[in-house]
Amino acid sequence: MPKQNDLTFVDLLFLCVVFFGAPIFFSLLGFLQLEQSGAELATNLDFSDSDNKSSIYLELVSLSVAAIYLYWRKFDFHRLHLSLDRYTLLLTLALILIAGGITQIFYDVTLPTVEIVEEEIAQPIEYSSYFSLSLILFSLLNGFYEEVFFLGLAFAVSKNRLPYVLIFSLFVRFSFHTYQGITSALGITLFGLIFLAFRFRLTNLVPFMLAHAFFDVFGLGLPLWLIP
User: Fold this and answer.
1) Any residues with CB less than 8 A from the CB of 137 and at least 6 apart, and which?
2) pTM over 0.70
């Protein structure tokens, strides 16, 4: 049986449920709780080592299910371009600066950051405890996990369906971040839109995954809080 050239929209729907069904459901619950509290954005977004390890396990299970499905569908995995070369780190840095800079401006304009900044200044960060191994490992895996769907599998459809699939992908990216608040989720959707724009010029997914992992560790935007 020949390899499947293009994924169908039904394939993408199934894979979306595998990748993001549970996150979308729990994000909706978190958003409803946020609405009931009257808050505009979630302030307690810290994850413990246990949370990171559980997320790693769940994402590995989901990736295994997706891989089995794609193998059954005779998907050509060579369509997912993953490679390391001399340009990888430079492209990663460029994505961090551009996507981080634009989303930083968006958040500065739309979010009430004064109280949050004052709280962060009043409580010095313990870097040794913040940058845990579980956080680094989860961030690397999550960067692969999300972008292999949004920038890899979503682009493995026929050209006439691609515009509709990309709109759908932005909605999905928004949906499982609503637990942070609508404004924050819109910022993450803007981040996804920036990545999509670059994806039309860059076929290698690794720089996108590494940049995503960077933002998972330091937060979306520019990590100015690292500057003393």
Assistant:
1) 52, 56
2) yes
Q: How far is CA 123 from the centre of its chain?
A: 28
What's the pLDDT at 118? 41
Cα 24 to Cα 163: distance, rounded to the nearest angstrom: 22
Element holding 101 (H helix, E strand): helix 88-110
Query: Confidence band (pLDDT; 50, 70, 90) for 182?
Result: very high
Tell me the DSSP string of 22-73. HHHHHHHHHHHHHHHHT-SS-------HHHHHHHHHHHHHHHHHHHHHHHHT
Instruction: Give dist(CA 16, CA 171) in Å, integer.
Output: 11
Residue 102 CB coordination number (10 Å) = 17
Tens-place pLDDT, residues 70-120 = 999 999 999 999 999 999 999 999 999 999 999 999 999 998 654 444 444
Structure tokens at 192: 């996804």
Are the C-beta atoms of residues 16 and 158 closer than 8 Å to each other?
Answer: no
**3-class secondary structure, 157:** strand
φ, ψ of residue 32 to 5 degrees: the values are -65, -40
